[in-house]
Amino acid sequence: MLVRVPLPDVPPAAGNPFEYWLAVVQAVVYPPPLPGLKARIGVLFGLVGYVALAALTYLTLTIIDYRRREKSFWVYRLVKRPGGSYIVGNLALLEPVLTCLVTAILLAHLQDEFDTTFDGAAKDQTGVWRIAPWSVLFFQCWMVSFASLQAFVLSADQGAIRFFTPRIANTVFVVVGVAAAICLITFDALTAIRDLDMWAHFVDLSDELRTSAANWSGGAADSVLAERATTLWSQYFEDLRAAVDYTYFLLIVFSITPFLTLVVNLASFGLLFAVRRQIKQNRANLLSSGCGLPPSMEGDIEASCAPVSISLAPATSLPPTNTSSIKETDYYLTPPVTSTLPPRSHSPIPSLASEGGRQDRRAPSRADLRAMAVDKHGGALGERARSLAQLHRAEVDLLLTGLTVGALSLSFGVLSAWVAANLLNYSTWS
């Protein structure tokens, strides 16, 4: 049932009542912009544009690296483990691709806000662009966070795999993701439909008032024309109420889902700890096997070093990983196998001090590892250095991904809760 919202009374000095009502309606729909709004939109546009450029650059470099190393492009795949197959996402591609998509929608939203507020254009699309970013942001946070968690489970020990079996992992990922997606997309569609109807009624009302104002011959407003204008005005507010209600539900769902992704992302930090443990173990093995660096880096000395483990899992849980697979596959996709590194090699980079200098051996720094990794004649030592260097890169990537997605999830949850609390003001803000 349509709730009637009467037009305001016309003061005696107003003259043409239809012109007065038209001015009132436009003042409600097109409020003056807040001070400094143009500058804030400009700053946001610059920040989002910077993120989009950074994501596009990262994606380009990733594609170049994949081609150089002849790796296959994939977004999701099934990875077999003794308990079943995990649905695994490729973080290297998921994160930049989703970031590019999100930033593109945010840029379109900001451009629409600017056009609507300062040029009075594209008002019918404003409501759609205001709700579009929320769902895409959820998809980004959920997919990236769960991809990190999947990588942790696949790289951890057997206890973690027994606790987070493929059936549990795949069910949580699919069911929670699909349920949230259905809710968000449904409320997106309902809100967009109501918002488009609202602006259609506003256009009809404006045209009706302009036509009536042009045909007004003085005196009181014609009752039939006034009733028609009142009906259109009431329909406008009916659609506005419905759009606000749907947006409330949309923001409630979105306020919950970022905190779910935050919990998932915190769990994925276990992978970072596993990587750090493996780096520590590999460095210890490097020293104990006689492959540490002496204080003096002079001379060309033959190294004789035992192979060391490079798998991400702790050395007590899984056997060593084949280092030759690192170039071609992601570190958590291939089950560990026995290393086949040659036992002896000649390297121009010193790695072993004389027998008397063994007592003063130190672990190689990251700069030392990089120097040994680029040496094509390093043999076993160079192979181990490349393994450790890759572990260090994985450590940095995991830390940055975890902190970024965690901060985004927390920020989006707080932001959506704030918008929901101030929705009546936000829904009329141009």
Order of helices and strands: HHEEHHHHHHEEHHH
Strand order of the largest sheet: 1-2
Number of domains: 2
User: Stretches where pLDDT falls below 50 for ≥5 residues?
Assistant: 293-329, 334-360, 426-430
> What fraction of the residues are assigned to beta strands by DSSP?
under 5%
Give the helix/strand class.
mainly alpha
- Computed over alpha carbons, the radius of gyration is 31 Å
Total strands:
4
Strand count, sense and closure of the main sheet?
A: 2 strands, antiparallel
Overall pLDDT confidence: 72
Transmembrane segments: 41-64, 85-111, 131-156, 168-193, 246-275, 398-421
Protein name: Proteophosphoglycan ppg4
Organism: Leucosporidium creatinivorum
Keywords: Membrane, Transmembrane, Transmembrane helix
Protein described:
- With 430 residues, the chain is mainly alpha-helical.
- Helix content is 66%, strand content 4%.
- The chain has a two-stranded antiparallel sheet.
- A hairpin with a 2-residue loop joins strand 1 (76-81) and strand 2.
- It is elongated, with a radius of gyration of 31 Å.
- The two termini are 29 Å apart.
Keywords:
430 residues, 2 domains, elongated, transmembrane, Proteophosphoglycan ppg4
